[in-house]
Each structure stands twice: as C-alpha cells, then as structure tokens.
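Predict the 3D structure for this chain.
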Amino acid sequence: MTAAYIGATILSAIVFLYYGATCLFANGMAAEFARYGLSRYRQLTGALEMLGALGLAAGQFFPILAVVSAGGLALLMALGVLTRVRARDSLAETLPAGVLMVLNAWLAVQAWRA
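Done. Predicted structure below.
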C-alpha cells in the first residue's frame, strides 16, 4: 500500500474514533441528532463510526475488512450529507461529512484493488 493510503486510513480511523465517541457520550451530539429528528439513531451511528474505525485499522491485516469498513463509513457519511442538506445546514457544516465520504470511498476502492 502507498503512503497516501496508509496516511488516509490512519486519519480516517482517528477521526471516526473521535466522532464515534462524541456521538455516544457528548451532549452536543445528542442535541444535533434531536435537531435532525434522529435521536434514536445517535448511539447506533456512534457505534458504527467506532466499529468502522476499528475495521480500518484491522484492515491492514485483513484487507476485506478495509473494503467493508471504508465502504460502510462512506455510506454513513453520504447519509450524513443528505441529512445536513435536508436540514438546510450551511456548506461549512456539510463539508466535513462530504470530505469524509469521498475519502472513505477512495479508501474502499484502493483496498478492493489491493
């Protein structure tokens, strides 16, 4: 694997571990999910983010996990983008989910090719 792939994998895993923990334990994220009308999905989202991050790390040893994890995180972020668009959030608020969606889609494709 290239240095770009490894660096992007590490970055994505760190970001999703952070966001997953925030989703599970921070009151601010509870308020955000309530604002979207998706409170019942907050813990599931946080757990999926953390599992995806762990899957990216394990994917270094078991490549199929990298494909599944990165693809799942890309899908999760696509849903995040759609949610933010539906809520009429600003581009600045929507952009992180979009960037993470593209990054993880790229990681999934690269892992598939490996």
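Helices lie at 3-25, 27-36, 42-58, 63-86, 91-113.
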